[in-house]
Amino acid sequence: MSRSRRKGLLPLLWRQFGSERGASVAIAGVVLVVSFLCAAAPRALEVMTSAELAGTVSSIPPTTRDLRSSLFDGPPIGPSAAGDAFDGELDPIWGVLDDGLRAVRADVPEPARSLLGDPRFAVNTTALQAEGYDLGDDPFNKLVLLADPLMAEQIEIVEGALPAVPDPAIYDFDRDTVFADDEPRPGEPLEFVLSVETAERMGWPVGAVRSLKLAPPGLQAVRLSGTFEAVDAESDYWQLTPTTLTPDVFDDGNRRATITGGAFVNPAGWDAVYSLTTSTNGVILQTRIWFPLNGGTIEGASAERVLGQLRQVTSKAVAITADVEMPTRVKFSTGVVDALSTIIARSTATTSVLLMATAGPLGVSIAVLALAARLVADRRRPTLALIAARGGSNAQLRSVLALEGLVLGLPVAVLGIFAAVLLIPARAAPGSYLLPILVGLAPAALFALAAAPGSLRQVRSDLGQRGSGRRRVIVELVAIVLAVASLTLLLLRGTQASETAGVDPLLVATPLLLSLAACVVVLRVFPLPLAALERRLRARKGVVGFVGAARALRDPVAGLAPVLAMVVAVSVAVFSGAMFATLTVGVDSAAESTVGGDLRARGPIFFDEGVAAANGVAGVREAVALQDAGTSSLTVGRSSAPVTVLLADTAALAALQSGLADAAPDRAALAELDGDAVPIVMSKDLAAQLGAEVDEGLTMNGQKLAIVATADRIAGSGVADNWIYLDRAFTETVVTGGFVPRILIVSLDAGADATAVAEAIEDATTSTFSVSTRAQAAADIRSSAFVSGLQLALAAVLVLVALLTAVAIILVSTINNRSRSRLLAVLRTLGLSRRQTGQLIAWELAPIAVTAFVGGALLGVALPLIVLAGIDLRPFTGGAAQPALVIDPLLTAAVLGGFALIVAVASLLAALGSRTTTLAAALKSGEE
């Protein structure tokens, strides 16, 4: 007897497990997919953040990226503590500065310290004009003398030799000695080297001696000892020491051109360079200090920590010498701080949008698992009832099903986690595995809950409307109140741009609570029109409509789970389409604001002749010059503020930019004096800062100003804040230097090729400049890892909810298969045709599906509004303003049509078995 029981136990368990194999497969599949996505999401976000960091930081020029500072004086002089920082004669001069900078780096905490390379520094003078040679028609020559202790590592001599150590007579004299304007200073000429290109452009042969004019006193003889080429012309060094490799050429067309080149002197002869400076001769020294910053190695997980550490380094001046009484202090800066702030804001916004989009589908997955657990418990009812009849306790019944759920869920969840780790190699916090593990444990909990004592009795659900008691009303009211409260709090809080990555509970909870509230409304609303339809169909001859409406009303197959699935599926579909369209339009608007037209050129000065030549190029509709005149002091009452001055032909620029984002204001008053005041447009942020002080009057360089409008930006200017904009007619009265614009905004004819037009403008103006187009600017923004990753994630969520919806419909249809089969078998014996059978089956889900689609569509429109109210999307678009909601009707209609097809196909597949059920089988099932 005992052997017989042992022999039959495993087959019995296997038969029990396989009695509803479809539900088991559904559970395993849902757990696998959801656990994989939950484990993959934080890893994918880490990959996106790291990719964005690498791309963004590497694109920042070294003059902005590196940790840098300037000291408008000579460097501290002295040897290093160990005496070996540099070789030979260099250490006694530069060693103490190297020690001080290495100490600064040592004080930077990790991981920021590992991003910083060895300290670099170089000292240069202001530009000094060369004299003492036959100028002819050649341009003026100016030299910027530069001393760098590591010069020899950067250059390779092509002709001549490295500069010799200067003659001590150059600097070994009384500093109070007064020279006449044209009096040569003592000593041999000071030697230097120029790049090959600079020497050729200046027409300065190797060995030639000329004089540098000091203003005043005296002349300093200099000799070109050699020419060089860069060891690595692509090195960041040449951008950090401007004019050394490629000279600067200034030619405004009004006077002889001037070529300015960087000239390396022997770094051991620093005293000679320092001797050229006095308190009266206008020669200023600048010590450039920088740490190369390798931002490409910043990982997403450490971005916040690096940002905080770099902010700490750049927040205050630090000592670079060990002199306790009078230490030399400098304040460092780096553009990586702003870049990291933007990237972290993008990461936070991406996380928030994805959490809002996935909160609903996560709830749907739990609902689907609950449906599957209900189906399994329903099929286990006879066995469980037998165990209960033989003395099995409620805890034992729950344990049996919980064990089955644990076997189904946990191993599959572990498999999903392993697949995520394998497919997405990235660092993830240990806590990121908690959610997928909970997903794996969910079937065990749901199976245990499905084994409630009351579930063992077979009851008829069509004898009254389910859930009409007080408990349902309370639950529904709680769901609606929580949804309204969360939405109210979110709207009151407003848009937030956070530099701290993390989960915002309010943003996560609001979509799910709204989905539950929408389900409550749908379940409460759909019986009302259905009851009216039933009363109307009762008087008609056809039986299908009346029976279908009556059954859908009295015994609805759709409970919370399938309704939640359909509502969330439709809402996510509409939400994804709306977000895609909103971001697309937002990016295009930001590109318009950045470029200011179809094409933006920046480079040499665009004089009126050049602008006229550009307007004559085929494909150009209009070209307008725009000047950034730099920073000037704006006097407001008794105080002043530095502002950027923008100038243009205001009427022409407004006409060119009409209809674009951040277009220049179209104000006729800008071209005419307001009494004795020049009319200006002021940036909104500057106007807000000045506040009531504006009423006290505005002046710049003694000229009164009058504000006629405010704006966020002037498209194409490249200036974001603290600016004023005025007509070029008032250039001479407000700023000095005349109208010398270096920006050209161009609008093109329809179909014109921007690249070809840009080349034609270069030929027409005989100038070379950098060009950016609106399409290129939009493509650059869309190339962001966050933008592409968000679009991919929304598409994945869309597919997930579609699958969950299909599974939910199939499960709920399977659960109700017995009651449906009994009804159809009886009606067939009364003459119901196959066609009528299909129509009756369609009545099961059609009423609730239509209502759920309407509710889901409305919720889908509301979710993007919640995103725009609670999440700052400007880091995505790069625009100055939060993008407006955009609904693409064609895309929305296509997505809704696709989901309607999914619901129809799933309903059809689930109900196919009902067509073949015989009356005998149905009656036998009812007896069981």
From TrEMBL:
Residue runs in coiled coils: none
UniProt similarity note: Belongs to the ABC-4 integral membrane protein family.
Topology within the bilayer: Multi-pass membrane protein
Subcellular localization: Cell membrane
Superkingdom per UniProt: Bacteria
CC per GO annotation: plasma membrane
Listed GO MF terms: transmembrane transporter activity
Record-linked InterPro entries: ABC3_permease_C, Macrolide_Exporter_MacB
Keywords assigned by UniProt, alphabetized: Cell membrane, Membrane, Transmembrane, Transmembrane helix
Protein's name according to its UniProt entry: ABC transporter permease
UniProt keyword Nucleus, yes or no: no
Species assigned in the record: Glaciihabitans arcticus
Residue spans crossing the bilayer: 21-42, 353-377, 400-426, 432-452, 473-492, 512-533, 560-583, 792-812, 845-871, 891-912
Domain ABC3 transporter permease C-terminal: 796-917
Pfam families in alphabetical order: FtsX
Main location: membrane
